[in-house]
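I'll show a sample.
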Amino acid sequence: MGAATSQVQTLAARVGSYGASLVDGSPSSRGALPVLPALGELLPGGLPRGTVAAAGGWGLLCLALAAGASAAGAWCAVAGVPQLGVAAAAGVGLDPGRMLVVPDLGAGWPQVVISLLDGCELVLLRPPDRPSAGVRRRLEASLRRCGGVLVVAGDWDGAQARLVVARQEWAGIGTGHGRLRARRVQVVADGRGAASRTRTRWLWLPGPDGSVGLADQIATTDMRDTG
């Protein structure tokens, strides 16, 4: 835990003045954190502060969930994802200048995440192991205290919102040749409370230009369903 904690402390110095710099009415200073327009129908009202959103597994959907808050000026952290590509994150919409990266969380990872929540409004986490009920309670208590949002790449019992990619189709293969240009996915969202009603939308993740957008529900002729 020592190296990871030291890294978090160094990163925390970068955001130490961030909370004081927020002014009333700024996109990230009150209410829920915003989401990308393409995710608006899946998460009406955005990501409520003090809550957990589970994304089923690591992928571009996780980054897309963080991109709206990042674009609005929030500091975001990505923890436990050593293979993270900063260019891919930027392509989805995250601001690299306001993104902290902790690739290796170490054995004491819950405390590292709590430290990140103290300095960032959104933390994207891939836990190194399945969190126990006690760990979940500690992190949820920190969320309520700090007013941040935890986006989990994986399962999280009691998550306020859950999103999963149910189907995916690639564009650009043609009749067995060509280059993959875009991916069209069917995302299913549900959760608790106001998010309990199941919602389903087709998204470009990524689209031909690398961004996230709404997709038509009718597949184009050069797409193949990968299940």
